[in-house]
Design a protein that fits this description.
mainly alpha; 2 domains; two-stranded antiparallel ribbon; 13 helices; repeat; glycoprotein; EF_hand_dom; calcium ion binding
Length: 254
């Protein structure tokens, strides 16, 4: 299915086409799945879901008694929830706020609910995440990233040679990513627009870049293609990649 020209090997363009196809497939599935989920959490069918409506259904899915939870939320009573579930709820609530388009009313319609469940679908979510990245890395406040800002290491001290080597590899990878992939016009600066383009799951350059990386992992004979034997030898890598499970991978990245 990936080897379109039937030459018994897979090139970067064939791999890119397959990744894009899988991406699109995931998006279509997500839209259909969203309609079903939205109907389930919008019991009164008014076309909007409140945070409390969603919270009740979410906790019910975790084994809590739905009627009890609904009653307690209605009466503003304290919910006895374990720490782990509470942490997940807090993270979900943050995402809920982000998906709530202006003017914010804390009610999500079907489109906003899709952004909440699948942030990779939403330009608004993409913009939000770009702002977060810029906020964390932009040291001079110009809303752009230089190479040195982009490769500034995460907080943490290097304690031994092994850690130093890991950090060196990390810097090398980030430098390559910045110069060859994200900085589209190669002017040494990454703008918010370039970063947004890079993070877009439907970006074909991203798919090509990923295809090349995947080939490099298993390309033992260095012919820039993958033969069946190479794929079988590295099967664990490929079955955990976007080649097989786009949905899981894109969610983990986001």
């Amino acid at each position: 299915r990936v080897d379109i020209n039937n030459d018994k090997k897979i090139g970067a363009k064939e791999m890119q086409r397959w990744i894009m196809e899988k991406t699109d497939e995931h998006f279509q599935e997500a839209v259909e799945e969203n309609k079903m989920h939205f109907r389930a959490v919008d019991p009164d069918g008014d076309g909007h879901v409140s945070w409390d409506e969603y919270k009740i259904k979410f906790l019910a899915s975790k084994g809590f008694n739905e009627k009890e939870i609904a009653e307690k939320i209605k009466n503003n009573e304290e919910l006895k929830i374990d720490e782990e579930t509470q942490e997940v709820l807090d993270n979900l609530k943050d995402r809920w706020y982000q998906a709530d388009n202006p003017p914010p009313d804390l009610l999500l319609n079907e489109e906003e609910f899709l952004s909440f469940l699948h942030p990779e679908h939403s330009r608004g979510m993409l913009k939000f995440m770009v702002k977060e990245i810029i906020r964390d890395l932009d040291q001079d406040g110009d809303k752009k990233l230089t190479l040195s800002e982009f490769i500034s290491l995460p907080v943490g001290t290097v304690e031994n040679q092994q850690a130093q080597d890991i950090d060196d590899d990390w810097v090398k990878d980030r430098r390559k990513e910045f110069e060859e992939v994200i900085d589209a016009n190669h002017d040494g600066i990454v703008t918010m627009e370039e970063l947004e383009e890079y993070m877009d799951p439907m970006n074909e350059y991203n798919a090509l870049n990923e295809a090349k990386q995947m080939i490099a992992v298993a390309d033992e004979n260095q012919n820039h293609h993958l033969e069946l034997e190479e794929i079988l030898k590295y099967s664990e890598y490929f079955t955990g990649s976007k080649l097989m499970d786009y949905a899981r991978n894109v969610h983990e990245e986001f």
